[in-house]
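Appendix B: complex inputs.
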Amino acid sequence: MLKDIYASVIHPRELVAMLKVKLSSKEQNRHHEPLSKLALQLSDKAFCYASLNKVSRSFALVIQQLPDKLKDPVCLFYLILRALDTLEDDMKFDTEEKLPLLRNFYQYIGDEKWYMKDVGDTHDYRMLLTHYPKIARVFQTLDPAYQDVISDITKKMGNGMADFSVKKVCTLEEYDQYCHYVAGLVGMGLSDLFAVSGYENDALREELRISNSMGLFLQKTNIIRDYHEDLFLGRSFWPAEIWTQYASHFDRFANAPESPDSLACLNHLVLDTLRHIPDCINYMRKLTNKQVFRFCAIPQVMAMATLAEVYNNPKVFKGIVKIRKGLASKLMLYTNDMNAVIKSFKRFMSIMIEKTNPNDPHFTQLQYQFNQIFQLLDSNSAVITPEFKIHKHYENTLMAELK
Ligand code: CA
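Resulting structure:
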């Protein structure tokens, strides 16, 4: 915490935001005991939310933005996909065992007799599968229309993961395909859940491309940011079609973080990620419910902040690059409408433009992308509602919701 305070000391508004989020995040679902213990104490539903808090603090925070009716389906959607991902990531299975597990997992999502012991890289992931019956029982209580969406996406994702567990991400096309399976499908499933809930228009379900892009933008940003961590874990998601243009071995970048080749490779991946921004802007413009909007927009502005941070930054090759906690808190509190999103995107794009090296081999393409995005952002701001002002009353409501 002290480190975070120092990092934000020249940004006083971030300090205030950080304190507010800190105060509001003492929410009921946060437990300090391990999940193995909580599983014996908590109701099925309370266990689901406690697990969500353990496996993803940030997702647990944004889910609080949603209307009540959507919280359970989205929480279950996340936990079930996380359980599937735990199967995918566990390296002790051989292919013969793993493929049918991934392909058939969707058949067990509502099965309270199904569980698996000792699978998963961390205690929390292992507990998700050990106590899976708790998740299955809450799943059964969901409206069948929500169940169908979750089941359909889990089936597609499991099959995609199985396909990729026997091949590597090499070409850009495979990179897009893999990201579609593990993240784009989440975007599509969320659009379905929003439509089923009635909070968003049915037409959102037809917006496959832009729903997919919402997931791809987040996923690709994380893949770029996680270079060092993934290298350490002996895996990589950077497409060979790109990185082999700059090095003969994937770990070479870690040995030469400042070299023009390393940075050119990094920026090439950032350029590829920028491609998805127009779709994301168009998606967010289509949302009509304020709470759904916040739920979708907060991760997008966070990803944009992260992309600006990693861009042309040799630290990516040396460790974990994160945005300041104070900045994250500010984005979480004030991303309330399209104007706020546009303001944040413009700010982070400007940071990127300032960092652009004229000697970068993709200098022209990068500039072109920046221009395209700026134009789109400007054309949007002409048609949307007047600038959002934070009224005391509204801020209090928001804080109450965050609790
Ligand atoms: Ca995975």
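The radius of gyration is 21 Å.
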